TrEMBL record:
Residue stretches making up the Neurotransmitter-gated ion-channel transmembrane domain: 247-498
Organism of provenance: Panagrellus redivivus
Alphabetized PANTHER family for the sequence: NEUROTRANSMITTER GATED ION CHANNEL
Span of domain Neurotransmitter-gated ion-channel ligand-binding: 32-238
A Pfam family matched in the record: Neur_chan_memb
Membrane topology designation: Multi-pass membrane protein
Official protein name in the record: Ligand-gated ion channel 50
Record's compositionally biased regions (Basic and acidic residues): 367-378
Location of the protein in the cell: Cell membrane; Membrane
Transmembrane regions: 239-261, 273-293, 305-326, 481-500
SUPFAM superfamilies: Neurotransmitter-gated ion-channel transmembrane pore (SSF90112), Nicotinic receptor ligand binding domain-like (SSF63712)
Length: 520
């Protein structure tokens, strides 16, 4: 059985070889002779045709290297194919057994080419591994097929929103193909039936290629119209990195800033540390994200999020300032006395001691110098004038310009008279004190102290009235209200933020084009 199979295969191979010899009999031209004949009779001019030359183009995407947002470009490796018909290159009449000839790339400089190039590329290099990756196939009917393996660096245009939806944005990178030497009257460009093919689904560290789209345009230049073929690749940003590196940490920072609401209102250092640390953490994180993005003058989605979170942390600092202010007002507001003071007391002023003494006591003793009354009576006017400048003390010292001093001075100067120090008013054997002006009616406690409105300036009264209204709010009640209002407001902010930007992202992706999943 095995011998039969071997014999059968051998017979088939012999017949194939005989058939090949029958198609290419001896005496026919070989490939070298055909190429030599073609090049010797070829003129490098526009092919003779009644109409323009039709060039069909296709593109095979091998890989996409990177997409840079700072320079707004991407790197792509493609196999770029061109097909056109040139009657001068036909060799059907010279060989019946050769259908096509694979020629050396050097012959491309000897024939006419449509000179199709990537007009918007920043850099395009033909791969050399180790020789130039260029394929040139010539068919017997004069059809030319050229294939280049290129590494292209092309620009990525911003969409209508630009970076406004970052990090939920999409990028559109375009390759524009034109004939650099011939306008549309000489060369017409067309996409093939399958213009773009992919080896695999393209996934970058930050982006996914979600779709591609091809179109044809007619571009006007000063010397005519040119056909332009466009291949547009749409990339959607993979925002999982930013969820972990930006959004989750900001959530934790906001929650930590709310811890200050659970602290005592008097714990000022601890609450300040929590608020300032949260604010600095958000600012530092915001700077790290922005340094990898181009400087644009409009607001991005990430800006809205970070500025919103910073505003919430700043709100906790404002709440802390209000709580501290109310706490200070309540601690500095005077308390009402427990029991009213004595209603009346007979007070006298001694010039020798400068203190008030009740009922004739001067320094705790009585003096019996009778002649002193006549000596002091001669200096009554001088002593009374000097006495106005002395300070009067009632339970401590009182400034000369205080309302209490003015009240006592005005009352005591009403009726100047000689008063017996020992309380005996008959003048026999007693010691009299001159230079002391005592009213016949004793001063009461209300007359000495006066009304609160008379003692304090008017602005102090108004300030206490304002403090009375402010201090009626408890600091603890503000913290209790904040620990409910802040999370509720943050939830509303989250709902509006995610609803708006995610809906915008879905609208960008759901646009006409060829999905990558169908051609991967």
């Amino acid at each position: 059985m095995r011998l039969f199979i071997v014999i059968f295969i051998g017979v088939i191979l012999i017949q194939v070889c005989e058939a090949r010899r029958r198609r290419c009999p001896e005496g026919t031209w070989n490939e070298g002779q055909i190429v030599q004949w073609i090049m010797s009779n070829y003129t490098k001019l526009l092919p003779d045709a009644e109409d323009d030359v039709h060039v069909n183009i296709e593109m095979h995407v091998q890989d996409i290297g990177s997409l840079n947002e700072i320079t707004s470009d991407f790197e792509i490796d493609i196999q770029f194919s061109q097909l056109w018909h040139d009657p001068q290159l036909s060799f059907m009449n010279h060989s019946q057994c050769i259908g096509n000839i694979t020629m050396e790339p050097k012959f491309l400089h000897s024939i006419w080419t449509p000179n199709v190039c990537l007009v918007n590329s920043k850099r395009a290099v033909v791969h050399s591994s180790p020789t130039d990756n260029v394929m040139f196939i010539l068919y017997d009917n004069g059809t030319v097929w050229i294939n280049h393996r290129l590494s292209v660096k092309a620009p990525c245009e911003l969409d209508e929103g630009g970076f406004r939806l970052f990090p939920f944005d999409t990028r559109r990178c375009t390759l524009n193909l034109e004939s650099y030497s011939h306008n549309s009257e000489e060369v017409t460009l067309h996409w093939m039936h399958e213009p773009i093919t992919l080896v695999r689904k393209i996934q970058l560290p930050d982006f996914d290629m979600v779709r591609w789209e091809t179109r044809k345009q007619n571009i006007f230049y000063p010397n005519g119209y040119w056909d332009q073929l466009q291949a547009e690749f749409t990339f959607k940003r993979r925002y999982g990195f930013y969820i972990l590196q930006a959004y989750v940490p900001t959530y934790l920072t906001i929650i930590v800033s709310w811890v200050s609401f659970c602290m005592e209102p008097k714990a000022l250092p601890a609450r300040t540390t929590v608020g300032v640390s949260s604010l600095l953490a958000l600012t530092f994180q915001f700077g790290n994200i922005l340094k990898n993005l181009p400087r644009v003058s409009y607001v991005k989605a990430m800006d809205v999020w970070m500025l919103g979170c910073i505003s919430f942390v700043f709100g906790t600092m404002v709440e802390l300032a209000i709580v501290c202010y109310i706490t200070r007002c309540r601690s500095s507001f005077p308390k009402e006395p427990d029991s009213p003071p004595p209603q009346s007391a007979t007070l006298y002023s001694s010039r020798s001691s400068g203190r008030f003494r009740p009922n004739g006591y001067v320094n705790g003793s009585c003096r019996s110098d009778r002649g002193s009354i006549f000596d002091r009576s001669r200096k009554t006017t001088t002593a009374s004038a000097h006495h106005r400048d002395n300070s009067l003390l009632l339970r401590g010292s009182s400034p000369p310009s205080s309302p209490m001093t003015a009240r006592i001075r005005a009352h005591s100067m009403a009726t100047p008279q000689v008063v017996p120090v020992n309380g005996n008013g008959n003048g026999n054997g007693g010691v009299y004190e001159m230079g002391m002006f005592v009213s016949q009616t004793p001063l009461t406690f209300e007359q000495v102290n006066g009304h609160e409105a008379d003692m304090a300036p008017v602005y102090n009264v108004k300030r206490r009235q304002r403090s009375c209204w402010q201090c009626s709010i408890q600091p603890e009640s503000i913290d209790k209200m904040s620990i409910v209002c802040f999370p509720f407001a943050f939830m509303i902010f989250n709902f509006i933020y995610w609803w708006y930007y995610l809906s915008q992202t879905f609208e960008q992706v759901d646009q006409p084009g060829v999905s990558v999943t169908g051609h991967s």
